[in-house]
Structures are given as structure tokens and as C-alpha cells.
Amino acid sequence: MSDYERHSGKLVRVLPGEGESFEDLLKRTAKEVLKVELEDLDEIEEELYCNKKDTHIVLLEEKALFKMVNHMKSNSVDDYMSITPIEEGFSFDTQFYNGGTCLKEMLNDKLQKQLKQ
Predict the structure, then answer these.
(1) Which domain holds residue 52?
(2) What is the pLDDT along the chain (117 residues), one digit of tens a residue?
(3) What pTM did the predictor assign?
(4) How many domains are there within the chain?
(5) How many CB atoms lie within 10 A of CB 58?
């Protein structure tokens, strides 16, 4: 059943390790989070997006990977989205009707706008 959801937390940018490419970082993250080895970056992005654990946000075009931390969910009403730059990435607070969107869609849209500024 659809309802309003409120989410808040932080998005911490995950950077490649020493000598690791962004592509290698995504492959390693897929293996750690999804427990599968994937080679195609588009497939990794899609699988992490569809992962119900809501742990990571991938923006391929911007070559950015974010890990969700301190994620809290509650129910409430009215739609809004706030995302604020912080030292380690972004903090977010959002509320939306889950019959028309999902948390990762809300975050992807705002992150893409923030990273293009």
C-alpha cells in the first residue's frame, strides 16, 4: 500500500582506493553489497539502484558513488527534498509519496543537480 515516507541521513562520498579506478570501485562495491561479481557498469548501477537495502547511490555520468549512513525512516505527509553539502558528502532530509517515486530516485535527482553546480 502506498503511503508518505520521510527519510533522513547522510550520503558519504566513496572514493577509489590507492591505485583503484572508479570502475574497479564499483565492481568491488557490487561484490561487497550485492554478493555478485558484475563487469558492466550500467548493470552495477541498476542493481545497486534496485537493491532494497538502500545503501548506495551511483551516478555514472558524474563518476560518483555515495554510501548512505545514519539513514532513518518515518511516516508523515507532504512532499519535500532537502540536500545539504557537508564535509564528507551530503546530508539529506526528504518526504514523498511512495506510490510515485522511491528514496533513491529522489536522491539521484538532487545529487545530479548538486554535482553539476
Answers:
(1) 4-116
(2) 677 777 888 999 999 999 999 999 999 999 998 898 999 999 988 888 887 677 888 888 888 999 988 877 776 667 778 888 999 899 988 888 778 788 888 888 888 888 887
(3) 0.66
(4) 1
(5) 26
